[in-house]
Design brief:
By secondary structure, the protein is an alpha/beta fold. The protein is built from 32 helices and 23 strands. Helix 19 (about 465-475) packs antiparallel against helix 20 (about 495-520). The longest helix has 30 residues, at about 30-60.
């Protein structure tokens, strides 16, 4: 069907007409996209079936990656590239007068995630398939995702994401594999054959229906599976409020991250997490038992990975099934469990480590709570045996204490591996956030620096650059990204640097057109594109960036002799619906942008742009066009970051703190090819530990700081009202928790250095090429190889394991 252009065109036209009952000239772009998508998925199916059969026949150990998010983006072009069909399809469609890029725009970004956590999961699946490793994803099929962001008069508004409005051509619904998931009710104990047993009575049951998506490897026949679960009502009971039951059931998989500022939202979010893990564990066990039978060898054939704390309930759910349904004793069940599960921590923020009130947890999941209590009792007993009499230590490490269930503690106790996602992150976990657990389980802790799939973020997102690289060093880098380092030998090749400059200019012109279409703002492609796109959170310090822009505005207005290279500041970010402080910062960015963009003098030197509804497809337009990559989180707060890697791979220069993977980027590129500023992680932690930081001192002793902070409340900013008083108070009255004012002067200095360097095009282009050349280390292929060899033990023979 796809062996050549002529066959493709014939098959495409025949399929379109048969499916829609209309001639090709009468068809719409939606018809054409859907036809092509279904053809590609069917083309994939043979390898998909064969992959699963190969895993079965070869008795290979498999990994299941449980994640509340999978930010997969659009799949049409990526699948065509991975299958080697991109050129045939593009040329065939051109002959028919169809632009493949226009068809790509029809596909909605899958509403399955929000930020780096979900995008990392998607990159991992790509690498697993492309490296022919047996690894699958388990997630939730959210009907409306997080939300679609709209900006109205500078304020964020949230609308439901309608990504499933026209269906999803890549998914296959499998109702025959549906499983039941139960909530509420009560647990009865009874004795049978001399053993105490338990049964769950009177609960509410919902049906988890799987939708499978193929995960296509690059230039390989391997096709793994992403299984997404959708909640559907079970059979109705007499006297039941059927409409309420339907609404309550469908709410479980309606939105990503329900607002948990109230008990109803907390209950829904906990329901969501248990729904994911219960359905996934039952499915994994069913498949394993049908294939192998011996549950005692489960961990030899299966590894289950928990991506952050959201899926941690998989541990007690697995125990429940082993004990209640497969009738194992506790010791055997716990031994299998603790040799099956591995856990990745994604945060150093103690407030981000999930804790569930017992008053919500126990009634919703009565049997699971009993198991968690038993895990806690046995865990605390083992602590007592080692730290006899140290009640404070045991209290701090307990899984259940002070009326809360601590999910990270449960994850560590029930896993054989605990990893951070960057070198500094793991060090902080071991020395600070999880130090007591590290002392008790030193053998469990390890570090795995995050990575990104270069096939999505370079080969697909920046095809002109990818083609230039291939023309220069060959195409082995696509399969072996470390080969990008051979670009180093071309750092003085003026012809190559000129081509690199031209590609960047073309990418910037494309983004400038998008900005004009969406925002009505004309930006100069020759200006420095300074880009800050990521989830909106106080520790990521979009506030520091916008205060610097306001300071530049003041400088331009006050000093006729001040000069700077023209700059376009580009923001993109979503704030969680209940995170009102973050929403204030979005409004501040827009107010400063209005002030800057409408000033006839200042707007000649800089522009401020906020691109709404930041998502994967928009990132694919922004990142290849970026000159400067803003990675300015408060040191010690960002676990790793992956945006920093995507920008680096596309030739943007990192401007950042010594935080997360920025440190390892510095190691790779050297201090002359990155812009570093601000407090170190040790300095930040010393302030937290010993005090000594007084933001008011910086306010009073630096006129630039005083001026911009005062402008938050003195009427300088358009449509400001009292909107920015919470920001003003956070900086002064609340002593600036994330050290924005402390790092302000250093940030201003390094920004000037970046602007001055950008003006020297030969130096800047050499820095760009150097960053691209060193980016191969940050491929998710390297990360997955480390996970598979050191944690999961997949892709190895039984003897190697």
């Amino acid at each position: 069907m796809f062996s050549n252009k002529s066959e493709f065109k014939e098959a495409f036209l025949k399929r379109l007409e048969m499916t829609y009952g209309k001639t090709f000239p009468e068809s719409t772009l939606n018809d054409q996209y859907s036809t092509l998508g279904h053809m590609v998925r069917e083309y994939i199916s043979t390898n998909w079936i064969q992959t699963n059969e190969t895993y079965r026949l070869n008795n290979e150990k498999q990994v299941y990656y449980l994640s509340i998010e999978f930010l997969i983006g659009r799949l049409l072009r990526q699948n065509l590239i991975n299958l080697g069909l991109d050129e045939i399809v593009q040329e065939g469609l051109e002959d028919l007068g169809i632009n493949l890029e226009e068809l790509e725009e029809i596909e909605a970004d899958a509403g399955l995630g929000n930020g780096g956590l979900g995008r990392l999961a998607a990159c991992f699946l790509d690498s697993l398939a492309s490296m022919d490793l047996p690894g699958h994803g388990c997630g939730i099929r959210y009907k409306h995702g997080l939300f679609e962001q709209k900006i109205v008069k500078g304020f964020q508004m949230e609308l439901p994401e309608q990504w499933l409005r026209h269906g999803h051509v890549w998914e296959v619904r499998k109702p025959d594999l549906a499983v039941d998931v139960s909530f509420w009710g009560k647990v009865e104990s009874y004795e049978e054959e001399g053993r105490l047993k338990y049964r769950h009575m009177g609960g509410e049951t919902v049906i988890a229906v799987p939708y499978d998506l193929p995960v296509v490897g690059f230039e390989t026949s391997t096709v793994n599976t992403l299984r997404l679960w959708s909640a559907e009502p079970s059979s109705y009971k007499a006297g039941q409020d059927t409409m309420r039951h339907k609404r309550d059931t469908e709410a479980i998989t309606e939105f990503l991250y329900p607002d948990d500022t109230h008990d109803e939202g907390k209950t829904l979010r906990l329901k969501q997490q248990y729904f994911l893990v219960s359905a996934s564990i039952r499915s994994i066990l069913r498949s394993y038992l049908a294939r192998h039978g011996d549950i005692h060898r489960f961990h030899e054939h299966i590894a289950i990975h928990i991506n952050d704390t959201h899926p941690v309930l998989a541990i007690p759910e697995f125990m429940r099934i082993l004990i209640d349904e497969l009738h194992l004793n506790w010791e055997d069940a716990w031994d299998i469990t603790t040799n099956t599960f591995a856990y990745t921590n994604h945060t150093t923020l103690s407030e981000a480590l999930e804790r569930w009130p017992v008053r919500i947890f126990q009634p919703l999941l009565p049997r699971i709570f009993m198991i968690v209590e038993e895990i806690n009792e046995r865990f605390c007993k083992s602590l007592w045996e080692k730290y006899t009499g140290d009640w404070q230590r045991i209290e701090q490490m307990a899984i259940v204490s002070h009326g809360e269930v601590k999910m990270a503690h449960l994850a560590i106790a029930g896993s054989y591996s605990v990893n951070g996602v960057a070198r500094i992150h793991t060090d902080i976990l071991k020395t600070r956030e999880m130090n007591l657990f590290y002392q008790f389980y030193p053998e469990k802790f390890n570090s795995k620096t995050n990575g990104i799939t270069h096939r999505r973020w370079l080969l697909k997102a920046n095809q002109p650059l990818a083609n230039l690289i291939t023309a220069t060093i060959g195409d082995r880098w696509i399969k072996e990204p470390h080969i990008l380092s051979s670009l180093q030998s071309y750092k003085n090749d003026s012809g190559l640097l000129t081509q690199l400059d031209l590609i960047k200019k073309q990418n910037k012109e494309r983004l400038a057109e998008i900005i004009f279409q969406q925002n009505g703002i004309k930006v100069d492609p020759d200006s420095l594109f300074d880009v800050h796109v990521k989830r909106l959170h106080a520790y990521k310090r979009q506030l520091l960036n916008i205060l610097h822009i306001l300071s530049l505005y003041n400088r331009i207005k006050q000093d006729d002799h001040f000069d700077m290279h023209p700059r376009t500041f580009i923001f993109g970010a979503k704030a969680s619906p209940g995170y009102f402080y973050a929403k204030k910062i979005i409004k501040l960015i827009h107010s400063v942008g209005e002030l800057v963009n409408q000033d006839p003098v200042v707007s000649q030197k800089m522009k401020v742009v906020f691109l709404e509804n930041y998502r994967v497809s928009l990132a694919e337009d922004i990142i290849p066009a970026a000159d400067l990559s803003e990675q300015i989180s408060t040191a010690s707060k960002e676990a790793s970051g992956t945006g920093n890697m995507k920008f680096m791979m596309n030739g943007a220069i990192t401007l950042g703190t010594l935080d997360g993977a920025n440190i390892e980027i510095l190691d790779q590129v050297g201090k002359d090819n990155i812009f570093i500023f601000g407090l170190s992680a040790d300095e930040v932690m010393k302030y937290y530990r010993e005090g000594g930081y007084y933001s008011m001192e910086y306010y009073h002793h630096d006129q630039r700081i005083k001026e911009v902070v005062d402008q938050l409340i003195n009427g300088t900013l358009p449509d400001s009202g009292d909107h920015f008083e919470p920001i003003y108070d956070s900086l002064l009255a609340e002593n600036d928790q994330y050290f924005v004012l402390r790092d302000f002067s250093s940030y201003v200095s390094v920004q000037k250095q970046a602007g001055d360097t950008f003006s020297d095009r030969s130096i800047w282009l050499q820095m760009c090429l150097h960053n691209i050349a060193q980016s191969g280390y940050f491929s998710s292929d390297r990360t997955i190889r480390e996970y598979s060899d050191e944690i999961w033990k997949i892709g190895q023979s039984i003897l190697q394991r």
